[in-house]
Amino acid sequence: MPLLETYANAGVDALIGVDPRGWDLAAAKQRIGGRVCLWGGINGHLTVEMDSPQEVQTEAETAFRVLEPGGGFILSPVDNVREWTPTSEQNVKALIES
User: Across the 98 residues of the chain, what is the mean pLDDT of every consecutive 10-residue run?
Assistant: First the structure.
């Protein structure tokens, strides 16, 4: 978050790793939205691998509501889905449906 303007001023096209578990999504969108595409919005390890499908849906809906207006947003798990388990499989399906 402290370097958002630095990235935007450097001409970065997309900022990968916009993690709702460590970022203020609304502040990021306000500060550099329109200049830099924000990529992420859902935590891969904690949300997709460990939470419930309802938590995945809630986090995805929040990301869309906050980051999508005006464009420049790619929904993606931030830190990848590293473990393929019944929970992560169910949650990936919930993410796609969301």
Answer: 94 95 95 95 93 96 96 92 91 94
